[in-house]
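User: Need the bound-state model for adenosine-5'-diphosphate:
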Amino acid sequence: MSAQRHADPLKILFLASEIAPFAKTGGLADVANSLPKALTALGHDVRLVMPCYASIPKNLLGKRLGTFMVYLGGNHLSGAVRLSTLPGSRVPVYLIEQGLYFARSGLYQAGGRPYSDNLERFAFFSLSALEGVAQTGWLPDVIHCNDWHTALAPAFLKVSQRVNPACRGIPTVFTIHNLIYQGRFPGAQFYQTGLPERLFTPDYLEYYGDVNVMKAGIAFANRISTVSPQYAEEIQTPEGGWGLDGYLRTRSADISGILNGIDYAEWNPAEDPLIPAHFSRKNLRGKSRCKSALQTDLGLPDKNVPLFGCVSRLVYEKGIDLLIDSLETLFREELQLAVLGTGDSELERRLAEASQRRPELLKVILRYDEALAHQFYAGCDFFLMPSRSEPCGLSQMYSLAYGAIPVVRYTGGLANSVRDATARNLTDGKATGVVFREPAVEDFVHAVRRALEIYQDPERRRRLRKAGMAEDFSWERSSREYERLYREALAKP
Ligand code: ADP
Ligand code: GLC
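Assistant: Bound-state model below.
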């Protein structure tokens, strides 16, 4: 290893399949935007790389630096690398262009069906990210890969003959943002990874006859992290391991949990250009204006009843079925509900149907809308997040920052970021939300009823809201923990 690899500051290449505002389907995109900025603020040279999707806004495409070739799955494939920057910063973002794979309407799927060539697409991306960036003449000290889409990169770096020789031996950190999405494909497609056949065994990428791409990251990264301390424990248990707990336990000593942060430059109710009135912990008046505006925009009666919001991918893991199954009971309470989300078509249908039945109580918006999401956080009194599983969750942090008291299930990062309104926590001024334990309709309804009681008690409501708004989820601390991880990966490859 060259002396330069130990140099301070570090050169870090960050691979992600989505980065806000280039492309976003969930929290990974936000983390891929804000963590690199925080690391840059610590003095490191951080560069990002992602696929050049057709949906990336034209003004973010930057300029083309050059072309390259990779050999994968028996084919010589060409690609191009573009250079852009993260808006509002100088952080370079490399975009890997290949029309065949990325010039499509969706990132991972169309019409609810994953693209059938996703293994090929992301194997290509993982190898091309290394090749394309190496060709620009810049080489990182450490490479940070995120989720299954980039999990082949650590394997390429350690065992593949196809990787650019200049990159070989560069240590990697692999972050699991969500263990549910493992990148599983039929075993017959293994050749598309370009990895040697000997890796198609249960010790490496094979999983009951299938290819499991996530396993490549777990097997070959120098260090593994996930996005909250609680989730780091959960994924090593049979209940939370989604079939990979045993495999993860083999690397237990190298796994850590680092809680995500949020970017307060984007998410600050005192300055947010996307909301109709501004407010802060010290002056909450603007929040009522945001609530009235949201009620009006949504077509809900503008009255003084608690407004419960939910901004979410509409999938089973987010506990959306618990919310739907609770609706008939909740409709008997004095409240309003609003849901913004997209996802599973059956959950979408059931929500839309419930809203048609009681339009004055429930409004459902089935689209992806960044501005409206901000208006939800600002306008709602409570934020619902009944997740069955939640590696970290950013939405509860945004809602805390915007004074929408979160009602969450005790799991993963929700357990690490919301403190229940128990009598003791309330007395100590520590309570920030309502937390329930079991993923059951009765428990969720009970939690909503506790929230209703809080609403009826303005002093308690004010204290909770203020305590939540005082929380600090900035990247300051977590980015230092990543820095430590990079140095560990460098010191002990
Ligand atoms: P996940 O990544 O599992 O979806 P997170 O809580 O980490 O969960 O991040 C979700 C992010 O996606 C938040 O920024 C949230 O506001 C945003 N989001 C989810 N659905 C929508 C939507 N329909 N419109 C706008 N933003 C959304
Ligand atoms: C994943 C998780 C979410 C987490 C996000 C960012 O999408 O589902 O809980 O906040 O990644 O790490």
